[in-house]
Amino acid sequence: MSILSDLNPEQKEAVTYNGGPLLVLAGAGSGKTKVLTHRVAYFIEHGLIKPENALLLTFTNKAANEMKERIAKILNSKFQILPTAGTFHSFCAKVLRIDGRHIGIPVNFIIYDEQDQKDAVKQILESFDISTDQYNPASILNGISEAKNQMLTPEEYKDFVRGEWQEVVAKVYPGYEKMLKEIGALDFDDLLIKTVKLFKEVPDILEKWQRTITHIFVDEWQDTII
Fold first, then answer.
1. In whole angstroms, how large is the CA radius of gyration of the chain?
2. Does residue 186 sit in helix, strand or coil?
3. Whole-number Å distance between alpha carbons of 48 and 43
4. What is the mean pLDDT of residues 203-226?
5. CA angle at residue 85 from 108 to 44, to 5 degrees?
6. Best CA proximity match to 81, nearest among 91, 66, 90, 71
7. What domains does the chain contain, in order, with CATH numbers?
8. What pLDDT, on a 0 to 100 scale, did the predictor assign at position 225?
9. What is the pLDDT of residue 223?
10. DSSP string over 84-144
11. Confidence of residue 11 (pLDDT cuts 50, 70, 90)
12. Which of 1, 53, 170, 186 has the fewest beta carbons closer than 10 A?
């Protein structure tokens, strides 16, 4: 059975398009994931890409693995190698495990989850004798996360402080970063930000990954925008 046999004309057009970047906009339940998995399988079967040069990204690792399984089923086990699949965070963690040492990140870095992060902020607040009832660690952590996503270092963030709450964030942020560095840990924001930093500061590494990953397929884009 052809990869295209159970697709409607619009889906076939999206699956076979090979003229550059493609964005598929459609309503819920209209078959966007089906189009993506068939598109990947079509590109592989027709020799447009090698499986190892494709990257599938979506909002959970479970969803990514399900897409990978669907692609394997479509290809009917014709290929032993399948594309890399995961979330933005898991892919960035992989990049940093392999090449993070070029910007001083240890290979065996720890990934701090949300509870680890809250505990760290709580400890720092208490070290400054700041009430965790008045300044909720989760709220302070959100402030730090916002600063990181704007690519602001602790020193740079101080220039944007307005009001008492941001002053507390500015006070905690440097200690939080110091704690993570001493432990050899990265939080979820760091996984994305440090990968951007790596690619910006070490062009050879960026070029290596550009040669390795030639095609990126993103499902549920609305849930994965960062």
1. 21
2. strand
3. 5
4. 86
5. 135
6. 71
7. 9-96+203-224 (3.40.50.300), 110-183 (1.10.10.160)
8. 55
9. 60
10. EEE-HHHHHHHHHHHHGGGGT--TT-EE--HHHHHHHHHHHHHHTT--TTTS-HHHHHHHH
11. very high
12. 1
Tens-place pLDDT, residues 38-68: 999 999 999 999 999 999 999 888 999 999 9
CA distance 146 to 155: 14
Mean pLDDT of the residues in the chain: 92
Name the nearest CA neighbour of 196 among 68, 80, 84, 100.
100
Residue 23 has pLDDT above 80, yes or no: yes
Write out the two tokens for 42: 């079509």
pLDDT in tens, 88-141: 999 999 999 999 999 999 999 999 999 999 999 999 999 999 999 999 999 999
Both tokens assigned to 179:
């704690």
Contacts of 3 (CB under 8 A, 6+ apart): 15, 38, 41, 42, 45, 74
The DSSP result for 30-80, as a single string, is: SSHHHHHHHHHHHHHHTTSS-GGGEEEE-S-HHHHHHHHHHHHHHHTT--S
Sequence letter at residue 59: F
Distance between the two ends of the chain, CA-based, in angstroms? 38
Burial tier of 8 (Cβ tally within 10 Å: 0-12, 13-18, 19+): exposed
Confidence of residue 211 (pLDDT cuts 50, 70, 90): very high
d(CA 28, CA 34): 12
